[in-house]
Amino acid sequence: MIIVGVVLALIDMLLISRFAPLPVYQIILLASIGLIAFGILEFKGKKKDKAQANQQSGGNTLDLFHDLKKYDIKLSNAKIKRNFYKNIPEIKTQNVTKRNDIYSISNFIAIDVETTGLKPATDRIISVSAIRFEDWEPVEIFYTLVNPQTSIPVEATRINHITNDMVVEAPTFSQIAESLSKFIGNSNLVGHNIAFDLAFLYCSGLNLMDKGIKFYDTLQLSQYLMNSSEKTGTYIDYVRNYKLSTLCQHFNIRITNFHNSGVDSYATGLLFEKIVKYKIK
């Protein structure tokens, strides 16, 4: 299936470039979206049958990336200043209880960034993905590679598979920050270890903590819900760790190509739905 995705992505690129030559980074983006789509195991069926199909198949994911609306990212010439990590506002995440309105929670944006390292103060963002979910359905995607204006360490490339050549013609974060902020608006944000993503966005010049947005962290929520030891108690089950891939496997969300920001944000949205529905039911 993944091989088919690669072939289709390449055909897509060739057809487009035949009529309008594209910058290298845009060609890579097209290929990346193709790979994202086919990194998710395809489930046959119509979108309107998603809930029933997922239930019958034990929660298999649908191949919806080709159906998602691609957000039109407008590049800005504005230069934004980086923020000092020491000045980052407190990041408050929300818990989910039976008192929550499940309808209001079902509308959100799942976000993920890939970076050159683990330190927001000194490392840089190299890709951003944000997927809008409405009534638990993914409907629109913001996805782009980002030129960090510095070299990508080999260690980072081993994890996220993003190379220096892939981002050399990509926009800088300053160029896409305004579009990303508009895409997010006042929507609730969901992330897996969302403090990591928010810290990198903040240090890159985009402060989302002052917009009145509610933040939900699937890492924290899963820690409240499950135990990583074999003790029993109020937890629904045992998991060996709280990695996104481990939790998706636990909830039978069959996804591959983790550490791709598009795949990770999509998986996070599906995981959030599983956690919320369990806690509220």
Description:
The relative contact order is 0.17. It is built from eleven helices and six strands. Strand 5, helix 8 and strand 6 form a beta-alpha-beta unit. The chain has helices spanning 2-19, 24-39, 50-56, 102-105, 154-160, 164-167, 173-184, 194-203, 218-225, 244-250, 261-280; strands at residues 69-70, 108-115, 125-134, 137-145, 189-191, 215-217. It has 281 residues and is an alpha/beta fold. The protein has a single domain (66-280), classed as Ribonuclease H-like superfamily/Ribonuclease H (Nucleotidyltransferase, domain 5), CATH 3.30.420.
Going by helix content, strand content and strand pairing, the class is alpha/beta
* CATH homologous superfamily grouping: Ribonuclease H-like superfamily/Ribonuclease H
Number of domains as seen in the coordinates: 1
Q: What's the CATH class, please?
A: Alpha Beta
Radius of gyration: 19 Å
The profile of the biggest β sheet is:
6 strands, mixed
Count of alpha/pi helices: 11
Q: What is the architecture at the second tier of CATH? A: 2-Layer Sandwich
The proportion of residues in beta strands is 5-15%
**SSE order:** HHHEHEEEHHHEHEHHH
Keywords: Exonuclease, Hydrolase, Membrane, Nuclease, Transmembrane, Transmembrane helix
GO molecular function: 3'-5' exonuclease activity; DNA binding; DNA-directed DNA polymerase activity
Transmembrane segments: 22-41
Domain Exonuclease: 107-281
